[in-house]
Amino acid sequence: MALRAQGFGTRRKTGPGPADIRRVLQRLGALQIDAVNVLVRSHYLPVFSRLGPYPVDGLDRLVYRQVAAFEYWAHAASIVAIELHPALRWRMDRFATHPQWAGFLARMERERPGYVDAVYAEVQARGPMTFSELTDPARRPKNPRYAATTTLWDRGSDGKSVLEYHYDSGLLAVAGRQGFNRAFDLAERVIPATVLGAPALAEQDGQRALVRRAGTALGVATIGDLADYFRLPVAATRARVRELVDAGEFVATRPQGWAEPGYLGVPSASARQVQLSALLSPFDSLLWDRRRTERVFGFRHSFELYVPADKRRFGYYVLPYVLGDQIVARVDLKADRAAGALLVPGAFLEAGHRADDVAGPLAAELHAMADWLGLGEVVVSANGDLAPAVAAELSGTG
Question: Is-above-0.85 flag for pTM?
Answer without folding.
Answer: yes
